[in-house]
Amino acid sequence: MKRFSTVAVAMGAMLMAGAAQVSYAAGFGKGDGDKAKLSDRLASASAVIDEVLSVPDKGIPQGILANAQCVVVVPHYKKGAFVVGAQYGQGVATCRTPRGWSAPVFVQLAGGSFGWQIGGQSTDLILVAMNKNGLEHMLHNKFKIGADAAASAGPVGRNAQAGTDWKMNAEFLTYSRSKGLFAGLDLDGTVLSQNEDDTRTMYGANVPFATVLHGDTPAPAATAPFLRTVAKYFVIAKKNSD
Prior knowledge:
single chain, ten-stranded mixed beta sheet, 2 domains, 10 strands
């Protein structure tokens, strides 16, 4: 009887732990609901851009910066321990408009697989939309990279010559930084989707992504440092290319 009770307790504990994991996983994609956390995410995204692009010889080539239509930054993209093989990250995006870079929206990136990311290691991701098709995908609720939107691992370095494939077909160029190494990355199979909860938290209302990314929504004060960082590199590159 004692042995049966012990087994029952152990099984109960396992079921509770499993339920907790499922509950956590189910809520993992929801918004933070906290402007302070969103400000931290914006600061992290700014730091990723600044640290990568302040070293042109190891960053994104000027020609790509000059032609970028949208920029997505996902700091600390992680392989989750709570579900085997799950990978997840939350980030921020902005698009080029005739009046400068748009107010940002919040996004989430999930799925995909790349062999060197193991043991819960995190990496910083940058996605660059290179044409109007990439911009249009940004306005959808969600899309799969490599299936719905063509993507290529981006070239790196001041004098890097990108292959003709991205010039002809790629809607997105994808990059990663892990342990100080910045390189192009194949993100095929990864799903990029809108984080409506976080965007609503920042703007105080259900503002459509299209309205924000087309530049029709004023940028909240908390987003200004991130936008200045984007403009510091991308707008200057645009002027230098003219």
